[in-house]
Write a structure and sequence with these properties.
Elements: H1 13-19, H2 22-33, H3 36-41, H4 47-54, H5 58-70, E1 74-77, E2 80-83, H6 85-90, H7 100-110, H8 117-122, H9 135-138, H10 142-166, E3 174-178, H11 184-192, E4 197-202, H12 204-216, E5 223-227, E6 239-245, H13 253-266, E7 267-280, H14 288-296, E8 298-299, E9 302-303, E10 308-309, H15 310-319, E11 323-331, E12 335-341
Parallel strand pairs: 3-4, 3-6, 4-5, 6-7, 7-10
Antiparallel strand pairs: 1-2, 7-12, 8-9, 11-12
Helix pairs in contact: 2-7, 4-5, 7-10, 10-11, 10-12
Length: 344
C-alpha cells in the first residue's frame, strides 16, 4: 500500500521555501554580525533603541527586525522586541553558550560550495587523494587550525557537558580521545567526574590550542595531549575508553574501520569504544542536517567522507573486532552515539 502523499493539493510555497532558504541564512548571519540579538538582550527594545544600537536609520533596522520576526528569531511584545529563548541562549554574545561565531564560520566557509552540488556529483574524479579541503591539510595552517578549533570549542562545550551528564564516565580510569580538537569533551567530563585521566590526540596545530583551553580550566594534571595523525603511528596503550567525537564523518568506511581497529589495539581487554558523529536513520529518511553533510561530502566527484546509519556503524564496529555494538541518538536532529566493547 502506498502512503498518502502529504503534498497533495499544495501550491508552490513549500518548494519556494526550500529552494530560496539561502535568504534565511543571509538574514540570520546579518543579525549575528550586527549583534542584533545581543543589543536586544542588553535592553534595546523599541525600534528607535534598536536602530540607535545598530547605528542605522529606523527604516533599515525595521527591515532586519521584520525579517527576523518572520523566521521567529525575535518577537514584539507591547512595542518592545524580545529574542526567542533559544536565540537568547545561543546567539547573545554575553551568553556562556554563545555559538554565533561558529555559525558564521561554518556558513561562510561552506556557502559558496553549495552552488555546485550537481557538478560535484557528476564530475569524474581523477584522484581520491587528500587535498586542501580535508582536515589533515586544513590544520597544517596554524591560523586556520586556531580559527576552526576555537569555533569548535564554542560549538561543542555545551555538548561536552551533555555527554558528561548522560554517559557514565565513572566506570573508566583512562580515556583516549582521538581527534579531540579543543579538548572540550575532555574538559567537561573532567569537571564533572573526579579522578579519571584523559589523553587528547589531534594534529599539532590543534593541540597547541587545546593546551590553552586545558590550562585555562586548570586541568593540565588530568588531561595530557599528544600531537599526531590518527592514521599514523600506533596509539598509546593502556586505556579503558577510546573515542572519536565527530572526526570520522570526514573519512570513508575503509579508513573508519582502520581507525577503529587501531583504537581497539589501544584499549585494554574489555575496554569501550565510543563514537559520536553525524548519523542517518537506518531507513535514510533523515535527519536533515546529517543528510546534507553527507551530500556535501562529495566534491568534484571525490568523496571527502560519509555519514553512516546506526546499523552501518555497528557493522564497522564488528569489522574492527568489537562486540556488543549499540547505537542511539545523542542529539536527535544530528548526532548518533555508538558504543562497543573490545572482547575481554
Ligand atoms: C570536527 S572536529 C571535532 C573536535 C572535537 N572532537 C569536538 O567534537 O569538539 C574533528 C577533529 O578531528 C581532528 N582530526 C581529523 N582527522 C585527524 C587525523 N587523521 N588525525 C588526528 N586528528 C584528526 C581534526 O584536526 C579536528 O580537530
Amino acid at each position: 500500500m502506498t502512503t498518502k502523499d502529504f503534498t497533495l493539493g499544495m501550491k508552490t510555497e513549500r518548494m519556494t521555501d526550500i529552494a530560496l532558504a539561502f535568504k534565511q541564512t543571509g538574514a540570520i548571519l546579518a543579525a549575528i554580525e550586527l549583534e542584533l540579538f545581543t543589543h536586544i538582550a542588553r535592553g534595546a527594545g523599541t525600534l528607535g533603541e534598536i536602530a540607535a544600537a545598530l547605528n542605522m536609520d529606523e527604516e533599515k533596522a525595521d527591515r532586519l527586525l521584520t525579517a527576523c520576526k518572520s523566521i521567529k528569531l525575535v518577537r514584539e511584545v507591547n512595542g518592545r522586541h524580545e529574542n526567542f529563548s533559544d536565540v537568547e541562549r545561543y546567539l547573545v554574545k554575553d551568553s556562556k553558550t554563545y555559538f554565533g561565531d561558529y555559525l558564521d564560520y561554518m556558513a561562510h566557509r561552506d556557502y559558496g560550495a553549495w552552488e555546485h552540488i550537481a557538478t560535484n556529483l557528476t564530475a569524474v574524479a581523477e584522484t581520491n587523494e587528500d587535498d586542501d579541503r580535508t582536515y589533515l591539510s586544513l590544520m597544517q595552517d596554524p591560523e586556520k587550525a586556531r580559527e576552526f578549533t576555537v569555533a569548535g570549542y564554542e560549538a561543542s562545550i555545551g555538548l561536552g557537558h551533555k555527554l558528561a551528564k548522560e554517559f557514565d564516565f565513572s566506570q573508566f580510569d583512562r580515556w583516549l580521545d582521538l581527534g579531540g580538537g579543543s579538548g572540550c569533551y575532555a574538559i567537561a567530563a573532567c569537571e564533572r567526574q573526579q579522578g579519571f585521566k584523559v589523553t587528547v590526540l589531534d594534529q599539532a596545530n590543534v593541540i597547541a590550542i587545546a593546551r590553552e583551553f586545558i590550562d585555562k580550566h586548570g586541568l593540565a594534571d588530568r588531561i595530557d595531549t599528544k600531537p599526531g595523525d590518527f592514521f599514523g603511528d600506533a596509539y598509546p596503550t593502556g586505556y579503558d575508553l577510546a573515542s572519536y567525537i565527530t572526526p570520522l564523518q570526514g573519512y570513508m568506511p575503509d579508513k573508519v574501520i582502520a581507525c577503529l581497529t587501531k583504537a581497539r589495539d589501544a584499549l585494554k581487554p574489555g575496554g569501550t569504544i565510543l563514537v559520536v558523529d553525524y548519523m542517518l536513520k537506518d531507513d535514510k529518511t533523515g535527519p536533515i542536517d546529517p543528510a546534507f553533510v553527507n551530500l556535501f561530502g562529495v566534491r568534484e566527484g571525490r568523496y571527502l567522507g560519509r555519514v553512516n546509519t546506526g546499523a552501518e556503524w555497528c557493522e564497522f564496529m564488528k569489522d574492527a573486532g568489537f562486540v556488543d555494538a549499540e547505537y542511539r541518538w545523542f542529539t536527535p536532529h544530528q548526532l548518533g552515539l555508538i558504543t562497543a566493547r573490545k572482547p575481554g
